[in-house]
Amino acid sequence: MLDIKWIRDNPAKLDEALAKRGAPPAAIDLIKLDERRRDHLKILQDLQGRRNEASKEIGKAKGSGDNARADVLIEEVGKLKAEIQDGEEIERRIDADLEDVLARIPNIPFDDVPVGRDEADNVEIRRVGEPPRFAFEAKEHFELGEALGMMEFEQAAKISGSRFTILKGQLARLERALGQFMLDLHTGEHGYAETAVPLLVRDEALFGTNQLPKFAEDLFHTTEGRWLIPTAEVPLTNLVRERTLDAAELPLRVTALTPCFRSEAGAAGRDQRGMLRQHQFYKVELVSITDEDSSVEEHERMTACAEEVLKRLGLAYRVVTLCTGDMGFGARMTYDIEVWLPGQGTYREISSCSVCGDFQARRMNARYKVAGEKAQRFVHTLNGSGVAVGRALIAVMENYQNEDGSITVPEALRPYMGGIEKLAVV
């Protein structure tokens, strides 16, 4: 959420930033709503001031024996009290209207984020590793998995519907191995603290990480009012919700391996075959909480941590900066890491690392204090996939496939596979 004071002082900058994102201008309407709120608060303060003044006059009138004057003042205080109660209700409605509008305004991109409409305008930063060359036609992951008898879609659909997958045997173990490998890397070498978090959250938690109110249709909602997490970013970032940290505690780095649940409401017709786009999948999430001066540097660090996963697995990838039109709602800048998939002959996203500034912190009221300073500051938040386990499984299957349909296990994963070096039909 943006600071309304900043919007009052920088209306042109807000509308310029929104234009870069392909969104309509909003400054005038926001400022009008804020002026209405401020004007109403002035009226309410005047009423409260007069009520306090009249209450004191009642005591004086009674003390001097002027009961008639006291009765008039008592009647006035009663009317003022009713007006104040009505005014406070109006204040709550205006506040709610302003908060609702502010909650739907996306974050301000950094000045160096490329301006564009969609993924075609993203800018490649670097490529790492060489895609493998096969002496045979590369297959896609679902062809490999089904031929091995370790991946089922038809039975999953009978159980749960479309966009679900059943993994069996060594392939199920390989998925588990990937998650454990990533956790060990990020906790053992990158300084993230492993955290077990709830998979069901309240409205407030999703509002804090800007999934609500704008993206409700992308989520699964329970009958008792909770939501299944779309990513562990939600509970991990909300660890600092309504807290004030000491600057010495920062940066705070946490990670979790969790199932994630997404309705994929906007993905009709996309990636229908295989397990690239699922309602349920595993992901290792990275979240950093920093002070306002360290978030840009932390963004580079987090992206490097996610890249290290692919380097250890020997997978070719590229890093792109998302343009303003393709960037997430709460981000000021996002790097996407795209892994090479031989079966598709292209790079596909496997991680997004975003720096959000104080956008989420304002929604969560998450602050920090610097020694010797009276004023508190909002923390800065960052999140990234470290990485998506299902997509890493797809990448390993396709990049390590053999002509006979078997899949070689990358060396980094063999300790987690009990020494198994190859997945093959038993």
Automatic annotation (TrEMBL):
It catalyses: tRNA(Sec) + L-serine + ATP = L-seryl-tRNA(Sec) + AMP + diphosphate + H(+); tRNA(Ser) + L-serine + ATP = L-seryl-tRNA(Ser) + AMP + diphosphate + H(+). ATP binds at R262, S263, E264, E349, I350, S351, S352. GO terms for cellular component: cytoplasm. CDD domains: SerRS_core (cd00770). Keywords: Aminoacyl-tRNA synthetase, ATP-binding, Cytoplasm, Ligase, Nucleotide-binding, Protein biosynthesis. GO terms for molecular function: ATP binding; serine-tRNA ligase activity. L-serine binds at T231, A232, E233, R262, E285, N383, S385. Pfam families: Seryl_tRNA_N, tRNA-synt_2b. NCBIfam families: serS (TIGR00414). Catalyzes the attachment of serine to tRNA(Ser). Is also able to aminoacylate tRNA(Sec) with serine, to form the misacylated tRNA L-seryl-tRNA(Sec), which will be further converted into selenocysteinyl-tRNA(Sec). Consists of two distinct domains, a catalytic core and a N-terminal extension that is involved in tRNA binding. Homodimer. The tRNA molecule binds across the dimer. This is Serine--tRNA ligase. The gene is serS.
